[in-house]
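As the next step, I selected for study one protein, both as residues and as discrete backbone shape codes, as given directly below:
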Amino acid sequence: MLVLGVVSVNILNGKAEIFTQPEMVLVKAGSFQMGDESGELWEGTRPVHQVILNYNFWIGKYEVTFAEYDIFCEESGKPPANDQGWGREERPVVNVTWRDAIAYCNWLSEKENFQPAYNEAGELLDFNGNVTTDITRVDGYRLPTEAEWEYAASGGHEAVPIPPRFLFSGSDDIDEVAWYFENSGDEMIFTGTPLTVDYSSHGAAKIQGKSTQPVGQKKPNELGIYDMSGNVWEWCHDWYGEYTVGEKVNPIGADFGHLRVMRGGSWIFGANDCRVGNRLYRPPHEKIFRLGFRFARTEME
């Protein structure tokens, strides 16, 4: 059985509370070429540019599961996320908005007595609770920046070979590391009309045969991180913006926008969509059956 963390006991308001600390992987500071010039990927992955991350950070070893998210929902009074009829437990949570994801991160921070990373407006907070754009000063759990996500998916400080990096997170053979359209189940059957499918509310009654899979079943990447290609797309912190030329240091995305970045591809997408250099976006209020998240945290000195 998959174990996602270690159990500790916290004393809150005089009451003993059992809490499962999440399993995370340390990613050490470094630089990499962000983006992908391949003609097989869309223009939004270009131009390739140098990114420097001059700090260490932690990132979730696994995508957040229903088992973990359900505890948050029970304690916070939020309605549970829809599992599409596929089952819960160790499957990655889906049908969560960007704001649901950052609320989970703040809840997790409070569990471990860290300064929450977000205010109600979704702005980053430093370790004193002040709004900041300096990711190195954010104490609590948060969504990974898009740069952190791609660096970690590419193998981070353990990346081999350098260059070139693997096409997918941990391998050039997608079947080794990812659940995607070709291996996520039997032939897909639409029971609704495909041309009128509303993917924002797409349910198990309208699609059968393929689905998400329990986390951690495929080969991990060089850092020991699972499912960064395929299974579910993952929310990132960043507002979506077009890439520009020139070196970037500790980027956190566009200054403002109306679309948040998502990364990694999913069980219902093709191989190219699961490439580490690929990127897409969705409005932060959307709940989608192919989109979940994992969390990150800056290593404090």
